[in-house]
Amino acid sequence: MTLEARLSDLIAPVVEAAGFELVRIRVTGSRTKTLQIMAERADKTMSAEDCARLSRALSPVLDEANPITGNYNLEVSSPGIDRPLVREKDFEDWRGWPAKLELNRLVEGRKRFKGVLAGLDEGSVAFDIEGEDETALFPVEWIANAQLILTEELMRETMKAERQDRQMQGDDDDGDL
Fold it and tell me: What is the largest CA-CA distance in the chain?
């Protein structure tokens, strides 16, 4: 079992109990390691306050379990607007949005593709490649990296979701007093 998988088993229950979904875990660095935990709410938002709250919830669990040898920094963040797509559900959730994929092998002489996510089809990512007429199917295990492409529409939708979230929490500060 990889370090990330062990960390996921340890961290996922804490993340879920705090009201978030775990998006990705990554350990980077050699001398001083960084444990990057990416999470979000079910509505795909994650504020700086949410990151701080989740960090406070995770710290005692990580301190007790001590899963990483030596010193490390804990970094809790949101996936961001041009988020990485790492879970199978991400490819379905973001169906219809422009994305870029990088494969771990060559397909028709290429590893990198731009296009529009078309969902999942029996363990493969359906992808409408820019300039192609037919939808391509890439097995999930072939995908090395995938992320949304930053567009004005994506920024608008993200800002709209964040605004709705603030309004639901009674923390809307549009300047009205």
Answer: 59
- Which of 106, 175, 116 has its CA nearest to residue 149? 116
Distance CA 104, CA 111 (A): 7
CA-to-CA dists, residue 109 to 106, 112, 121, angstroms = 5, 10, 23
In a domain? residue 144: yes
For the beta sheet containing 21-28, the strands, ordered from the edge strand earlier in sequence to the opposite edge, are 21-28, 33-40, 72-77
* pLDDT digits 0-9 by tens, 50-64: 999 999 999 999 999
Alpha-carbon 169 to chain mean position: 23
Q: Is residue 170 part of a domain?
A: no
> Of 149, 120, 151, 150, which is closest to residue 137 (Cα–Cα)?
120
Question: What number of CA atoms fall less than 13 Å from residue 125's CA on the CB side?
Answer: 33
Residues in the chain: 177
- Assign residue 13 the CATH number of its domain: 3.30.300.70
pTM above 0.85, yes or no: no
